[in-house]
Design a protein that fits this description.
The protein is an alpha/beta fold. It is built from five helices and 23 strands. It folds into two domains: 24-176, Alpha-Beta Horseshoe (Leucine-rich repeat, LRR (right-handed beta-alpha superhelix)), CATH 3.80.10.10; 182-381, Alpha-Beta Horseshoe (Leucine-rich repeat, LRR (right-handed beta-alpha superhelix)). The strands form three sheets. A twelve-stranded mixed β-sheet has the order 2-3-5-7-9-11-13-15-17-19-21-23, with helices on one face. The longest helix has 19 residues, at 2-20. The N and C termini lie far apart (104 Å).
Length: 381
């Protein structure tokens, strides 16, 4: 009887030790046998999701509270579908745990989810690096890891995803340079704004087929890539480059972007005049060139654009705007040097600027351009 009691006691102790140990790989529930999981792919998904569950250190809203047991297709935020190569095999096709406020890391086991086409984890507190095993996700179509705490250099693993069309890594702590390979991917939408990237843009930017690209609020520098953007005229609809350090001028060739809806280059170091050719962007709805060092006249052709809803050119050194601009639905012309308009720069500030106007060649980006016409000093407020 004593031997039986000791044997039972030891079994309990060993079980407690096993359960209190947190291994580096996925824990598979003791009561779950592979036969209870419908197919090998879902079994791999079970391993991957259990590993991820154990890599989460905080889930205050209990978003993953039902992530246990073999029925992974019932897990909150996990979506299953028929496999592309076999309609009779169910696989994990998508993960969407946006806005769950979960903290933790991404384990290498996530590379077992080889049927995954959608991975959305925005607005959480995930940190660390993107696992190298993501290279195995050949079907991944959308990757959204925005608004987390990922850090380090650009996540190069995304460059190995052949099916990727949507990439969103904004609002993280990535730093360093932007790899040229990024613009050779067949993406439709690209967001890498609000990180700490500090470099010039690669010369092959124009290779990208994206319709939307947002790179705002980084430390990007170099000459404004007018020529590269023109190469994207067939697909590009929206570009947001605000709050970087781009220099040089906006070139007339930008008028070729006839399909552009949103063009935001505010808060950079752009100089020179606003090209009349921008008035050829016939689809333009929002134009923002605020907070640069642009000068001269506002072309009437811009304010005559048929779809223009918002035109912001505040905090520059423009000296005139046509009456047509007053009819734009939403407009901001403050902090310029425009006579008779309210909230302009002081006459002293305007005179000082035009005494030494900034030329397009000041940053080595363009040959010298003709100087702007002299302002009518006596009309300044």
């Amino acid at each position: 009887m004593e031997k039986i009691y000791l044997s039972s006691f030891l079994r309990v102790i060993l079980t407690l030790i096993f359960l209190s140990t947190k291994p580096s790989h996925a824990l598979i529930d003791i009561g779950i046998n592979p036969p209870l999981i419908p197919n090998p792919r879902l079994h791999k998904a079970y391993i991957a999701l259990q590993a991820w569950k154990h890599a989460m250190i905080s889930d205050p809203n209990g978003f993953t509270s039902n992530w246990y047991g073999p029925k992974v297709c019932n897990y909150t935020g996990v979506f299953c579908a028929a496999s592309p190569d076999d309609p009779y095999v169910t696989t994990v096709a998508g993960i969407d745990i946006n806005h769950a406020n979960i903290a933790g890391s991404l384990p290498e086991e996530l590379g077992l989810l080889t049927d995954l086409s959608l991975f959305h984890i925005n607005s959480n507190r995930f940190f660390g690096k993107i696992p190298e095993s993501f290279k195995k996700l050949n079907l991944l179509y959308e990757l959204d890891i925005s608004n987390n705490q990922f850090n380090g250099g650009f996540p190069y693993v995304v460059l190995y995803l052949p099916s990727l069309k949507f990439l969103d890594i904004r609002f993280n702590q990535f730093s360093g340079s932007i790899p040229s390979q990024l613009f050779d991917l067949k993406l439709d939408a690209l967001f890498f704004n609000n990180n700490n990237f500090q470099s010039s843009l690669p010369t092959n930017l124009g290779n990208s087929p994206v319709s939307v690209i947002v790179m705002a609020n980084n430390g990007l520098t170099g000459c404004f890539p007018s020529s590269s953007l023109v190469k994207m005229a067939g697909t590009l609809k929206e570009i947001v480059m605000t709050n970087n350090g781009f220099t040089g001028c906006l070139k007339p060739e930008l008028g070729a972007l006839k399909g552009m809806n949103v063009f935001d280059v505010s808060s950079n170091e752009l100089v020179g005049s606003l090209p009349d050719a921008i008035g050829k962007m016939e689809s333009l709805e929002q134009l923002n060139v605020a907070n640069n060092k642009l000068s001269g006249y506002i072309p009437e052709s811009i304010c005559s654009l048929p779809k223009l809803k918002n035109f912001t050119f505040s905090s520059n050194f423009f000296i005139s705007e046509p009456s047509k601009c007053l009819k734009v639905r939403s407009k901001d012309d403050t902090k310029n040097c425009i006579p008779y308009r309210p909230f302009q720069r002081s006459p002293m500030e305007c005179k000082a600027f035009y005494a030494h106007p900034l030329d397009c060649s000041i940053s080595g980006c363009s040959p010298p351009s003709p100087p702007p016409p002299p302002p009518r000093m006596n009309h300044w407020p």
